[in-house]
Design goal:
Elements: H1 6-22, H2 28-35, H3 38-48, H4 57-85, H5 101-109, H6 124-143, H7 147-167, H8 176-191, H9 193-198, H10 201-219
Helix pairs in contact: 1-2, 1-3, 3-8, 4-5, 4-6, 6-8, 7-8
Length: 231
């Protein structure tokens, strides 16, 4: 796992294309299909890249803050300034009646409630991923990497994430409730990474095709899944 995996980079690239496609005018059924898995995919791939919790906690926090929080703050401020000076004046965006202070607070609260991320809706992912990285680091250290105990903690987090959907009427700062759901996919990526690495091309294509068909079929019975708001 020390060697960079080209197919993981390719999967991230496909995921980015799907995010772009999901935010442009396309048929609702296709958008609904994309939403059912494109964000979980990113968390799963991130989990595959987790190395070890043996490094000092502060070193891990600083590393993730530099790679996730600094870009978040940088792009959030830039896009807020652009929204404040340009795009909020375009009526077709439906943003002319938004109090500029609301998205300004969104820079620090980083959730989509009450139009807080109207200046850059997609940027929620960075702060949520940071919380997921911190949570999994703690889980991995507490369990000493033992799969059975790690799976138990993952199930508990998933249950708490689902319960928060039923009990909360709004998102927590930095989408902390979404992080409880997202850490499940992160854990799956970590626990199954060796299995993913050893997959051969032909059965993988067949497996992915079958799973995508099954996903499309199941999604046709439901409204759109939206991981950003834990829905």
């Amino acid at each position: 796992m020390n060697k960079r995996l080209d197919w993981v980079d390719a999967a991230k690239g496909i995921g980015i294309l799907l995010v772009v496609m999901a935010h442009v005018p396309i048929p609702d059924s296709f958008k609904q299909f994309i939403y059912s898995f494109h964000m979980p995919l990113f968390f799963l791939l991130s989990g595959m890249m987790f190395r070890s919790s043996s490094q000092p906690a502060m070193s891990f926090i600083q590393k993730k803050a530099k790679s996730l929080l600094l870009p978040y703050l940088y792009f959030s401020i830039i896009t807020y300034v652009f929204w404040f000076t340009v795009t909020r004046f375009f009526a077709f965006k439906g943003q002319t009646d938004i109090d500029p202070f609301v998205p300004f607070t969104g820079i620090f609260i980083s959730n989509a409630d009450e139009a807080r991320l109207t200046h850059n809706p997609a940027i929620w992912f960075l702060t949520t991923l940071f919380l997921v990285e911190m949570l999994f680091f703690l889980m991995h250290r507490l369990t000493k990497g033992k799969p059975a105990v790690l799976i138990l903690l993952t199930v508990l987090c998933g249950g708490a994430g689902y319960a928060s959907t039923l009990l909360l009427n709004q998102s927590l700062p930095w989408n902390a409730n979404v992080a409880l759901t997202a850490v499940v996919f992160y854990s799956i990526g970590f626990l199954a990474k060796q299995w993913f690495v050893e997959l051969k091309t032909d059965p993988t294509l067949l497996l992915c095709t079958g799973l995508l068909v099954l996903t499309a079929y199941m999604q046709s019975f439901n409204s759109r899944i939206d991981m950003r708001v834990n829905d």
